[in-house]
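The record is passed on directly below:
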Amino acid sequence: MRLSVSAFTLIIVATVLLLTGCSITPSEPLTPIEVTEASQAKSWELQGKIAVKTADDKFSTNLYWFHQPLANDLRLTTVLGTTVLTLTTNEGMATLEVDGKTYHDRSAQDLLTGISGWSIPLDSLPLWMTGQIGENDTIVSDNSDGTIKQLISYDPQADWHVSFNSWQLQSGALVPKLLTIKRDDVQIKIQSNQWTAVQVKGK
């Protein structure tokens, strides 16, 4: 089943307007740690905002992301902290929960695109959000302090153009504060208000 982008956006907006209440708390106990480079953090938490704009729709909401080497917990939330959408990956299986329904796929990126119509480079975002690049990425320009300013990520469908608009010092490391990701008629902006390197107790 695939919802149109408009239908998917309306579901999210309606849920945002109707729901109030609970806040997000990780299911595992976390300990904040200090690092000198973001790449040293095997696990991290990000709290911020995401805005998606296409030729037909636009939408923005709060973003929570708990990243581990083999698992992810990504959630869109209301201002009051109520979860509107949850996308999790664990041991090679992705699960999307939205509008009271649950969907599964081996690929988180394929799952989100298939259900929502949103084309978001989920596989590359953990690297970009920590100021790193993947094997398909080419740096176009740097800032004077050596941080990345712009890169192109090669994709069979259409290349992604990524701008690292600003950086910030978090958990002892420089990490991007605002990213703008574009291709064709899709624009994604991710603002990181708080990035925290963490250690999962017992791991």
